[in-house]
Amino acid sequence: MSVIKMSDVELSGKRVLIREDLNVPVADGHVTSDARIRAALPTIKAALDAGAAVMVMSHLGRPTEGQPDEKYSLKPVAERIAELLGRDVPLAKEWIGGVSVSPGEIVLLENVRFLAGEKACDDTLAKQMASLCDIFVMDAFGTAHRAQASTYGVAEHAPIACAGPLLVAELEALGKALKEPARPFVAIVGGSKVSTKLTVLDALADIVDCLIVGGGIANTFIAAAGHGVGKSLYEPDMLDTARDLTANDFDRAEIPVPDDVVVADEFSADAAATTKGVADVTDSELILDIGPETAQRFAEILAGAGTIIWNGPVGVFEFDQFGFGTKVLAEAIAASNAFSVAGGGDTLAAIDKYGVADDISYISTGGGAFLEFVEGKTLPAVAMLEKRGS
Ligand code: ADP
Ligand code: MG
After folding, report:
1. Looking at residues 210-239, what average pLDDT do you find?
2. Ligand nearest to C-alpha 368
3. In angstroms, rounded to a whole number, what is the distance separating the alpha carbons of residues 205 and 257?
4. DSSP letter assigned to residue 156
5. For residues 42, 45, 46 and 50, what is the CA-based torsion angle, rounded to 10 degrees?
6. 90 C-alpha to center of ligand 2: Å?
7. Tell me: the pLDDT tens digits for 175-201?
8. 312 in ligand 1 pocket by Cβ < 6 Å?
9. Closest to 42 measured CA to CA, from 172, 166, 162, 151
10. Residues in contact with 59: Cβ distance below 8 Å, sequence separation at least 6, in sequence order
């Protein structure tokens, strides 16, 4: 990698703007899984210890761009960083016009997605961000697959743009894992971002030997197999894509579709869970987890794997009655001898919930970026760092 590393740059007395991925789950104003915050902490500490004036920026959730909304405020994140650092971490609400911060101090900048032009990588916005700092540090692996103002544009215009230690570690660890994977190579793709993840599956099908699907992705495959999925989360526009993927093709990954599922009449914390065959789902039901038999079948596949990559919970694990499938798979990954890599915001929360972090070989902070890296794509934000470093 021909990028400048943060560790090679003199930070003392400099204004250092660090892009982290602090997109963590928040409920009732509190961070419910701080894995991404803890992963970013060594970078932040290193910059503070070096005597930099530190500004940290991130996105959180999917607010309507340009519209500040308390629901997506980074305030709970500032509070959690303050607890972990044992010092005050002020949150700057209005910051694009200028930030007041002294060497050795830290300010968290409010959600970058409250600014119009972030996603489209607006050049004026990127220049404003760049003008806040002497040195820009890209450390957010989880957003490196998006060319946005705070990940890509700012790196183009900042006086110096370098890679933070977390980003460097992620790229090296994943690169190593994927170079010559021990086989069988099994991928689990679940979760709710169905349309984006379905396109990734097409590429994954050429790389892995078995592709286990869960969540909204599995629901799309269940619908593609001709079953009713009621009110479930799925992607009606991608049924053909799913059908193509499951068509018999010996060169491509096998994609086992669930036989049993866990359904409910509503999406809620106290919804009653019923297990049934995949053909028996009614119009008024939602599939919220894979069934126990399917979970067992998938666990056996994982037990024999040489390499496992995991992104996306296979059910609504936040509600215990729909968490069994994710728990069984998490434990199967932990128990297997495979080299295992897991990534994704909610996947990290599931790993925390089921206490399997120590038995997974490498935990990445990235979800979408992680999948694109696995696919072999060049992450745009990394490409920009390479350009600035050459
Ligand atoms: P990650 O953050 O790990 O990349 P996603 O954001 O794509 O994963 O998806 C995680 C979310 O998917 C979880 O909050 C979970 O509740 C939800 N989910 C999983 N299975 C289902 C399902 N069958 N229906 C609706 N939501 C689901
Ligand atoms: Mg998520």
Report:
1. 96
2. 1
3. 14
4. H
5. 180
6. 26
7. 877 888 999 999 999 999 888 888 789
8. yes
9. 166
10. 21, 23, 111, 112, 113, 118, 143, 150
Residues in the chain: 390
How far, in Å, CA of 232 to CA of 238, rounded? 14
Tell whether the model's pLDDT for residue 291 goes beyond 80.
yes
Residue with tokens 């099994």: 186
Catalytic residue among 15, 80, 146, 193: 193
Which residue among 142, 215, 368, 388 is the active-site one?
Answer: 368
Question: Does any ligand 1 atom lie closer than 6 A to the CB of residue 258?
Answer: no
Query: How far apart are the C-alpha atoms of 262 and 264, rounded to whole Å?
Result: 7
- Per-residue tokens: 245: 């993927």
CA gap 214, 219 in Å, rounded: 7
Helix extents (H) in 226-323 = 239-246, 292-303
The pair of three-digit structure tokens given for residue 217, joined into one six-digit string:
């992705």
| Residue 356 phi, psi (nearest 5) | -110, 5
| Lookup result for tokens 């607890």 | 83
Question: Taking a C-beta distance cutoff of 8 angstroms, is the pair 135, 84 a contact?
Answer: no
Q: What does pLDDT average to over the chain?
A: 95
Tokens of 305: 């794997």
Q: Tell me the three-class secondary structure of 66-105, residue by residue.
A: CCCCHHHCCHHHHHHHHHHHCCCCCEECCCCCCCCCCCCC
Residue 63 CA, ligand 1 centroid: distance in Å: 18
Strand-pair category, 135-138 with 160-163: parallel
Question: At 362, which helix (H) or strand (E)?
Answer: strand 362-364
The reply to whether 353 belongs to the active site is no
Mutation pick for ligand 1 pocket among 146, 188, 189, 192 (CB with most ligand atoms within 8 Å): 192
Closest CA to 328 of 314, 339, 342, 341: 314
pLDDT digits (tens, 9 = 90+) for 100-123: 999 999 999 999 999 999 999 999
